[in-house]
Amino acid sequence: MMYYPTFDLFDDLFTSNSRNDFMKCDIVEKEDKYQLSMEMPGIKKENIHMELKNGYLKIGATTTENKEDKDSQGKVLRKERFSGSYSRSFYVGNNISQEDIKASFDNGELTILIPKNAPAKVEENHFIPIE
Questions:
Q1: Whether this model's pTM surpasses 0.85
Q2: What pLDDT score does 3 carry?
């Protein structure tokens, strides 16, 4: 079978990795907190933002990617640009404040620590005696 480099261009169009699997998250329960570890390869720390609103922690990221392939003479065979944004949301409860959440970013992995809440006390019924 002969090799046709042109077909590689079509293969890349139809078989390139999907960005749908971006921001995969592992959640580990520790004694006093939850640890979220999120994969974010190729993302810069300054392009990540987190927001806590109405009990939901929203994590977002943006990326821009430029790719250029040249042959041995420097002739451009393909030039692609990609720009996108991603987000995930997690319900953390209304008793968590922004100051309670700690986050770090290292080697393409975002680690978020969220303290566990003490279970909310269920208020007991207080009956009023009728005289």
A1: no
A2: 46
